[in-house]
Amino acid sequence: MTYKAKDYNSLIGMEGFSETLLNNHFTLYQGYVTNTNKLADLLTAMLKEGKVGTPEYSELKRRFGFEFNGMRLHEYYFENLGGKTPRDRAGNLAKKVADAFGSYEAWEQDFRATGAMRGIGWTILYQDNVTGCLFNQWINEHETGHLAGCIPILVMDVFEHAFITDYGLKRADYIEAFFRNINWDVVERRLVKNS
Ligand SMILES: [Fe+2]
């Protein structure tokens, strides 16, 4: 199958995110979609041509996780932005994070602290599909550190391209802007779907 880049132009105008930053970010995302398709085609062709035992096949196979996750994580990220309503303080998310972290505030503190860690990557609130447990997890690059069997509930990009245009090195200010724009309805739906 061929993946098609989704359109997130409706996020333009979001408070705390300049048009330049968002457009650059959309372009980066589109690159992951292009490369995911390209790699899928190359790997299929190599299989047909009997080239699966080659170093080229191994490296392209490894690369697929980087490009695919780069594509999919950006989709989770953009889709959990653009929110216009405050979170539901009595909703399923509030209850589940309080169960897992003691309180919503403790969860948020941990999520922000995870996002503020030095290095590039992603911060993800996961729900374990097996037990329903929640975790805030740090992801290096795109393809390493994911928790097997867990579903992303809230995804925050903390690569420098996600904020440096607007915030320089002030990552905490970007995280503040991210929190002001979370689409809590989307987050709730992801959670409910997997509860
Ligand atoms: Fe990004």
3D structure, described in words:
This protein is mostly helical and 195 residues long. It is built from seven helices and three strands. Strands 2-1-3 form a three-stranded antiparallel beta sheet. Helix 3 packs across helix 4. The longest helix has 30 residues, at 19-48. The mean pLDDT is 96. Fe (ii) ion (FE2) is lined by residues 25, 28, 74, 157, 159, 161-162.
Condensed summary:
By secondary structure, the protein is mainly alpha-helical. 52% of the residues lie in helices and 12% in strands.
Label this structure with key terms:
195 residues; mainly alpha; globular; binds fe (ii) ion
Strand and helix layout:
Layout: H1 19-48, H2 55-79, H3 92-101, H4 104-115, E1 121-128, E2 134-140, E3 150-157, H5 164-167, H6 171-180, H7 184-193
Helix pairs in contact: 1-2, 3-4
Bound molecules: fe (ii) ion (FE2).
Fe (ii) ion binds next to helix 1.
Estimate the mean pLDDT confidence: 96
What is the ordering of alpha helices and beta strands?
HHHHEEEHHH
Helix percent reads 40-55%
Number of strands: 3
- Tally of alpha and pi helices: 7
Task: Tell me about the largest β-sheet.
Answer: 3 strands, antiparallel
Query: From the alpha-carbon coordinates, what is the Rg to the nearest angstrom?
Result: 18 Å
Low-confidence runs of at least 5 consecutive residues:
none
